[in-house]
Structure formats: structure tokens, C-alpha cells
Amino acid sequence: MKKNTKRSSVYLAVVFILLYLPILYLFFYSFNKAGTMNQFQGFTFKHYSALQKDTRLLIIALDTLRVALLSSLAATVIGTLGAIGIYFSRAKRTQRILINLNTILLVSPDVIIGASFLLLFTLIGFRLGFYSVLVSHIAFSIPIVVLMVLPKLEEMNEHMITAGRDLGANQWQVLKEIILPDIRPGVFAGFFMAFTYSIDDFAVSFFVTGNGFATLAVEIYSRARQGVSLEINALSTLLFLVTIGLVLIYYFIQKKQRSKKQPLSLDPTNHEKAVRP
Amino acid sequence: MKKLTVLSFLIVLLASGLHFTKNLLQHTSGTAEPDIFHLYNWGDYIDPELLSRFEKETGYQVIYETFDSNEAMYTKVEQGGTGYDLVIPSEYMIARMIKEDLVLPLDHEKINGFENIDGAFMDLSFDRGNQYSIPYFWGTLGIAYNENMVKDAPMTWEDLFDSEYRNSILMIDGAREVLGIGLQATGHSLNSKDRNELDAAADKLTDLAPNIKALVADEIKMYMIQEEAGLAVTYSGEAADMIWENEDIHYILPEEGSNLWFDNMVIPYTVKNKEAAYAFINFMLVPEVAAQNADYIGYSTPNKAAMAYFAEETIEDEQFYPDQSTLEKLEVYEDLGQEFIGLYNDLFLKFKTLK
Amino acid sequence: MDKQRKLLSAPYYLWMGLFVVVPVLLMLFQSFRDMDGSFTFLNLKGYFTSPVYLYMTGQSFLYAFLITAMTLFISYPAAYFLTKTKHKQLWLLVLILPTWINILLKAYAFIGILSQSGLVNQLLGVMGVGPQPLLFTRSSFLIVATYIEIPFMLLPLFNALDGIEGSLILASRDLGANEWQTFRSVVYPLSLSGVRSGIQAVFIPSLSLFMLTRLIAGNRVMTLGTAIEQHFLVTKNWGMGSVMGIVLIVIVFVVMGLTRKHQRGGIG
Fold it and tell me: What is the C-alpha to C-alpha distance for residues B13 and B16, in angstroms, rounded to an integer?
């Protein structure tokens, strides 16, 4: 048993190192005196000071984060409720059709989605800008949320719901007290996937940005004609460090709270709590 | 549930925080609707200092949006949706936009500084009499090579077919560029609309395929600098950057001729602020401004009067400001029309699968 | 009761209707139109008689399959071990964070790592092996694509594995099963739903990867994404592009059908 945990930690460590190697490489070269991502010629902060002056890039970064946060939140809410709707739809055929429809958007190449969204927006006279980007990001993130939440629903113990109903819980209480706590890991996974899709998307965003609103991916790709500058590396380094920081802070706050409450309540995902009135 | 609600609330709060920070950065004090000028250009294709100078001198507020390819730009302009006042596409795309009435004719009365532009870059096939467009930057397609990695300096397209260069050429990922090499190597125009000529060109290119290391785009510059390959077919502006970073690299224009390209300023039909568009054109035509911009971007400026601001060696650099006789051998891409664009691309796809 | 539930799902249906059904109908409509806008079967015929397009379809499928297999192979043990670590949620997050860095930038980092004078070749040099051409090879494309997709596989797998109740595993142990037996007859079947979402989340986007095919593989690998992009933007032949889009969708439904069957087999 001891040997096994050791082996598993080694494996995890290797995966961890492999996943972070390119990232560290990026960070390292953000301090490169030369302008490219090879041949390190000396240490400098100049790309960071260039970034500080580039308000355009900073504004775009802030906008990108804002769209990603809001769109993934909305997509998570809509997608989770949608998944619950699909799960409870009576006829198995309807269910299958809905799941298939859900996948279509995941499948369609970005260019097609982007172009058809642009067509749609101009057709109904929707102004391109923050809201058009937000709406489209929500649209392509919803299916991934559904994809993450559905398996959790399928694993759910249905007797729990029946039991809840028998105890007189209404629809809302069943949702709040039984279903949501049970599928929470799926909901979180959905949010993270949606956030990632939103941050990374270029093709769809390109078509629906406008009127001065842009996202980071669109800007980075457009700058590629001149070669990606290390300023972008510097920006990514900063954003990444902030993210890691936030994650750590959140995690430890949560842990502290949990340990304080320990004697009172169990892990909220636990079924016992869910059935307790 | 409670936790989910709290988290959602935190996310919304964070988003508002971001919005607030953005407004701080933008430092728009909110006084009266500013006079907005909407520019649609390649990313990082203008000195940002010039943009703020333009804002200061004219009082317009510039909204700068970027695209990564002519084709993507076209789709967006055609569809409408945003009111671009000025766009800077390449010449073959301008020809197409003229044909489809997507750009407006220019009022030459309102333009100052026309005479600063070199006559060689005016009145070209894609826009006779410059009715629609004003040159912004220009350049050529040619061969960049690293002197330590080739046996002889290449002089012609034909030299690239040498079996010595197996798996060592980086090629630009574009249908017209690649087929153009085949066409010019077989002695035809790179605007050919003759199926036999095109088939012959595609045939000729099968011999080039084994020499191609990779078909790539903007990354060529980086690969050449770090000596991943010894030869590349690339644009002059890119080559200028390579030479700047790596002294062993040189750039030549093949003897058979090559492509001469332009990025010109046009006013699209979506224009909302014509006055601002003309003000911007006039601003960019000022020799000193054009010189500063060319210095920042590294591409060749069509502004003859701007030359006075350059160092002697830049202007005499045959590679980037070629003499008249070389210039005459260069061809500008013409709009081929739907059918032949399709054919060129099909032939190119086939070429790609040869790898 | 059902009415309430329908009301909650209403935004989902609305969104799907507007952004899935409409674009797909548009695509279907386009695929039967020629460049002048009249009805035609020529696009379909053109696709199925073109060796180039069929070759690209085959390649898309092959590489998507390989990428999915490799990510699954690497992620499954990682996800499994992860569920046993102390701060599992934190570690999971840390493993997923790299996806938030722009893909173009990561591709450039890989170019630096794999190039002639790059990190890997320098290591090889230390070991006495001369520089190898690593960039623009199919294997480096597979490696980088796998790298990009691992987090998308890891997340659903972790969720499925983590959801398995500890009591089931304890019960299995009590019944005298060793670790491998427990894994095979308890953990593995219960994790299949995660495997399925993981495969879908990785396989589908891999079919139309086109950024990496150029940046890392130098267009030595050609996927349908390349051709679709071209038809929608360059040649403006939306009919042909749509046909390929539809073909992609059909392929994916076939894959989904297969994974569904697989699951049933696993449980039974």
C-alpha cells in the first residue's frame, strides 16, 4: 500500500511537470532581453514596463476576463437547468434527440459557428460589442456544461428524490436540497470548462466582436503578423500568477471555514445532509 | 446551494470590479459624446504613438479594431454590424471590394499630400487612378536565406527546386503565393486564368514538394531567426525583421519576377464618420508621420517624401527598396473571380497533401 | 410539477433553438446550394468524389482518434491517483490551470522547446545525440495536441472517479478482492460515464484542429478544419464548407453511438 501511493505520487509529479514545462518556458522568456522565445540573452523587466504602457492590451485583458466570468456563470446556470430538463424528460427518444442537439454545437467548426452567429446578429439587428460576445460565448459554453452535468445526474440516486417528495418537499426544495448538492462537482467542472472555452476562443469571438470591444485571443492572433511579442508573455505570466494566487486564497479560506465548522456539519456533498429535513 | 449562490455572487462582483478597473484605465472623463473614428487594421500595424498623436491633433477618439486575414476582414465588413470608417486591406481584396461595391470612391479634393506618394505605386491595375485607395505600406514576396545554410545564394525560383534542398524550405501558407511560384517558374503570369498553364504549374510544383519542410505563416520569421531552416519564401517586411535579428540572413527577389503587394487605406461602405476618415488619410500622408510608422513597423513606405527622414543605408537597400528595372518585373495580384479562386485553392490543397 | 421544471429549462431550449438549430439548418440549406444560390447536389458529389477531401477526412479521423487515445491513456491513471491525494480539489485545479493560457502562446512555447536549438535538442546534445528535427513531424503534432487536450479529459474523469462511493470500495475489499480486482469490477465500470464525456470533450474538437496543424506540423497533417476554414473564408464556397461541416457532425454521431454501446457493455 505504501509503495503504491509512492508510485502514484511519482506519476502525478511527472504529469504535473510535463503540463507546466511549456508554461514555465513562457514565463522564463518574458524576462528575455532579446525579443524572441529562444536564446535567452539576459534578464530584463522591459516587457513588463512595455505592458504597463500598453493600456489597449490591458483593457482587452480585463474585458476578456469579464466576458469569461459572466458567460461561464450564465452558461453554467442555463446549462445545469437544461441538463436537469433533459434528464427528467419522460420519453427516452426526446432525451436522445436533445443530447444529440447538444453535441452539434460542440462539433460544428468554429468558423461556421462564428459566421452564422454574425449572420444571425446582423439579421436581427443586434449591435456587435460586449453583449454579442457575451451571448455567443454563453451559447457555445452551454453544451459543454450539459456534457459535464449529465453524467452526474445519471449517477444520482433516484430514490433520494422520491424519498424527498414523499417527505413533502416541493419541486424547488428537491432541486435545492437534493439534486444540486449531488451534482455539484459536475457543475463546477462545467463552469471551469466554460471559462476555458471562453478564454481560448478565437474564431467565434472574431466574428462577433466590434464597436471597440475585443478579446485577448482576437488581439493576439491579429498581432501574429508581426510575431507574438514577449509583452504577451509578460501579460500571461501576470494573469497566471494572479489566478494561482486567487485559487490558493480561496482554497485556504474554505479549508479554514470547514475545519471550524467541522463538528457541526459534514461535507455538503454528503447525502446524509441532503435527506435531512 | 448557499455556497453556489455565494460563489455566483463573488463572480459577478469580480466582473464588476474588472469593469470598474477598465473604466479607470480608459480615463474617459465622460464629457460629451466624443467624435469617434473607427479604424479596422491588422494587429500591431501602426505605431501606437501615432494614434495618440492623431487623437491629440484632431480631437477624434480612435477605436482600433484588428483582423488577422484579409478574408476574415472581408466577411466582417461585408456583413456590416460595426461602422468601420477606414480599413487597410491588401490589393487583391480591394479589387474584390470595389467590384462588390463595398468601398466608397475617394474625394481627391479632400486629400492633401497625394504628391508625397511615389508614382510607381499609384494608378495600379487593382485601382486605376486611385479612385478608391491610398497606399499605406507595400512590399514584395521573395526568398530569404541564411548564408551559412545554403551552398550558393539562390537567385531564382528555379534554384529552390534543387534536390540539394530536400526538406529545408519554409513556405508561406497561401494558395496564390505557392501557385505563383509554379506559374512564374514555368514562365507564366501569376494571375493566369488558363487551365493548362495552371495544371502545368501544379505539375511543376510536385518537384518542389519534397523540398518543403513546412507550410507556415507568420512564424516563418521566428524559425528563420533561430535557424530552424536555411531557406524561406516570405514577404519583404518579415525578411526585414529577420535580418535585423540575424545578420546571416539575406533577402532576394527571384529573377523570374515575383509578387508586389500593397496594403492600402480604403473607406468602406459602413463609414459613419467620413470627415475623420479623410483626416486620418491626410495624417498618414504627412512624410514625417509615414517615416515614423515605417520605422516602427519595418515595412516599406510608399511615401517618397518620407525618405528624407531615413538613414542613407535604408533607402539604398536594394532588397527592400528595389530599383526601377526590378520593380517592373514584379506583378500585382489581380482578383481572379470566384471560379479561379476555387481552382487555385483546390490545386493548393492537392499540393499540401503531397507532403 | 413538470411545468415548473420546464420553465426552469426554458432558457436552455431558447438558446439551443437560436444558436444550434438555426445555424445547423442554415448549414444544411447551404450545402444544397451552389455559388449562385440555386439548388444542387454538386457539393455533395464534389465532396465524395474528391480524393483530397476524403483523404483529409480520413486523416482528421485518424488523428482525432490517436489524440483521444493518448489523452485517455495518460489522464486515466492521473485522475485515479488524484482522487487519492490529500488536497485533491486543489491539485485538480492546478492541473487544469494551464488551459487558461492562450493556445497560440503555448504553441509558440512548444516551437521553442522542440526547435533545432531548443530545450529538447540541447538535452539530447548533452547526452551525446546530435540535434534531431523534431518540429514539423507528425509525432510532435500528436504530442502537442495531447498536451493541449489532457485537462479536458482529466476533469470529467476525475469527477466520475471521485463520485464513486468509498463504501463500495471498502465493501469490495471486505469481500476479499485485491486492489486490481476492486479496480476492475468496481471502479472501472463506475467511471465509464466520465470516460464517455471525456472522449466527447476531446475527440470532437480534435477533429477540426487547424491552428496546431500549421504551427507544429507545418501542414503535414491536414484536417477537415483546414478545408472548412478555407471554403468559408477564402473561396467563399459556403456550400462546400457546409457539406464538410455536416460530414463532421455525422462522424461525431457515429462516435457517440459507439461510446454509448461501449458503456452498456461495460456495465452488463
Answer: 5
Average pLDDT over residues C86-104: 86
Measured CA to CA, the distance from residue C255 to residue A107 in angstroms comes to 12
Distances (CA, A) of B87 to B163, B174, B205, C172: 43, 22, 35, 69
Q: Does C263 have pLDDT greater than 70? A: no
In the chain, the amino acid numbered A132 is S
Name which of A234, A137, A241 is nearest A193 in CA terms. A137
Which residues of chain C make contact with B226, given a CB cutoff of 8 A?
115-117
Alpha carbon A169 to chain centroid distance?
33
Regarding whether A94 and A3 lie in a shared domain, the answer is: no
Q: What is the Cα–Cα distance from B231 to B214, expressed in whole angstroms? A: 11
The overall average pLDDT reported for chain B is 89
ipTM: 0.84
- What pLDDT, on a 0 to 100 scale, did the predictor assign at position C260? 65
Pairs of residues, one from chain A and one from chain B, whose beta carbons lie less than 8 Å apart: 125
| Pairing between β-strand B133-146 and β-strand B249-252 as defined by DSSP bridges | antiparallel
Question: In the structure grid, which three cell numbers stand for residue A3, read together?
Answer: 509503495
CA distance A29 to A18: 18
> Could you tell me which of B198, B149, B162, B159 has the C-alpha nearest to residue B178?
B198
Are the C-beta atoms of residues B318 and C15 closer than 8 Å to each other?
no
- Round to whole Å and give the CA distance between A271 and C86: 21
Asked if B226 and C115 come within 8 Å (Cβ–Cβ), the reply is: yes
Instruction: State the Cα–Cα distance between residues A277 and A173, nearest whole angstrom.
Output: 10
Domains delineated in chain B: 2-138+262-321 (3.40.190.10), 139-260+326-353 (3.40.190.10)
Mean pLDDT, range C20-48, rounded to an integer: 84
DSSP string computed for C18-78: IIIIHHHHHHHHHHTB-TTS-B-SHHHHHHHH-HHHHHHHHHHHHHHHHHHHHHHHHHHHH
CATH topology of domain C41-267: MetI-like fold (1.10.3720)
Which chains have 3+ CB pairs within 8 A of A?
B, C
Asked whether the beta carbons of C246 and C31 are under 8 A apart, the reply is yes
Task: Quote the CA–CA distance of B79 and A206 in Å, as a whole number.
Answer: 13
Q: Residues with Cβ < 8 Å from B170, sequence gap 6 or more?
A: B212, B213, B214, B216, B220, B223, B224, B228, B229, B231, B232, B233, B234, C218
Q: Which residues pair with B233 in a beta bridge?
A: B143
C52, C116, C218 ranked by CB distance to B350: nearest: C52
pLDDT tens figures, B97-141: 999 999 999 999 999 988 999 988 889 889 999 999 999 999 999
Same domain, A99 and A210: yes
Identify the closest residue of chain B to C240 by CA–CA distance.
B342
Residue B141, SS3 per DSSP: strand
Q: How many CB atoms neighbour CB B153 within 10 A?
A: 11
Residue C185 CA to residue C179 CA, distance in Å, equals 10
A187 and A61 in a common domain: yes
C138-163 and A180-200 helices cross at what angle (nearest 10)? 160
Q: Note the pLDDT tens digit of each residue in B169-224.
A: 999 988 999 999 999 999 999 999 999 999 999 999 999 999 999 998 888 888 88
